[in-house]
Amino acid sequence: MATESKTDEKNTNEETDQWAVVDQMIERFPSLIDTLLPTAVEEPEGPRLFKSFDLASAAEYMSKCSNIVVMSGAGISTSAGIPDFRTPGTGLYSKLEQYNLPQPESIFDITYFRENPKPFFLLSKELYPKNFTPTPTHYFIRLLNEKGKLLRSFTQNIDSLERIAGIPEEKIIEAHGTFSTAHCLDCRKEFSLDYVKDIIFKDEIPYCDTCKGLIKPDVVFFSESLPQRYFEYVEKDFAKCDFLIIIGTSLAVVPFNSLTSRVSLNCPRLLINKEPVGNIPSFWLSGEAILRFDSPKNRRDIFHPSACDDGVMELAKLLGWENDFKKLLAKERKSSSTQTVCSNIVTALTQKISSVSKPAPQTVQRRSISPTKTTKITVRDQSPKKVVARTSSITKSSKFTLTEKSQKK
Questions:
Q1: Does the active-site annotation cover 138?
Q2: Which of 138, 176, 183, 304 is catalytic?
Q3: pLDDT in tens, 317-354
Q4: What is the pTM of this model?
């Protein structure tokens, strides 16, 4: 008995010592970070690239550039009626309570999607391309290309408005994927935008017509690797970039936010945003990625506080492109209005023809993806199917996945 008592006491002491070590590490962690960050955020000194850090100076410098890279986020699409993700009350994440998700981000979680794809496809109806018209900011990026100055547009957005705005596809890098194409999660068969859209707008879940697997638009979910094309052009473009425009992004998503560090130390960086971002060192953002527009040692970063559309309108004016920009916007708005009228006419005629000669429908019990009620719609896969995890080969670039930093409120 005495031996057992000594053994228990020894084990208890060892556990206490282990917890003491953990407590010491926790106490020291903030100071360790404080020690590491100052050395991480230092940038080599050099001559100032601007006499003054304002939009006029940025425009003057831009006029001499021919390899401009644009980094954009959800903020460039909000004036089109597409909400961003994080704005309290109006952002997409704050509108997801009706779907009873474990957490808002679950709607972009691949594991949750396989188990319950309904919430994502319901949300997709609000985000789908061709429901919205590009904003002036999208057309400004197109104008950059038409002026021979755009090297590439890197976007976090999945709304495909860059394509709709007429920016050449080869100039667009959709870092977080796109709705423009979709693939079966099992056999990888590709499906078009219109094929998937027709299904989900009937409140149905799209299944593969070959293997009956679940079809997912090529939008990058959390923990999924970013497209290979993204990594290829990051390596090619940022070394060539002679001016970086960062617009409408919170710089809160890894690894996209680190792209600000990929340009040379002599490349100017212009941020057009309602609020300053990217200027505070953190575990997720450090070193040369930090924007230093509020630092006394700043030599190349400019922050222009404004809405995205207002900012590009002013920038176009300073570049001497005001008339060209207004003509482009007027032309596209007229084209968009004409397309809307034609589309409404076709829809009305189709409904008229259908109502005249439509066979009596057969009553079939179907499954709806509505969050509140059950209706009678077609079930594309009525047989249960076991989901098998797919293992893909690991490449040098696949170690980077889409993640989101979390902060304690």
A1: no
A2: 176
A3: 999 999 999 999 999 988 765 454 444 444 444 444 44
A4: 0.72
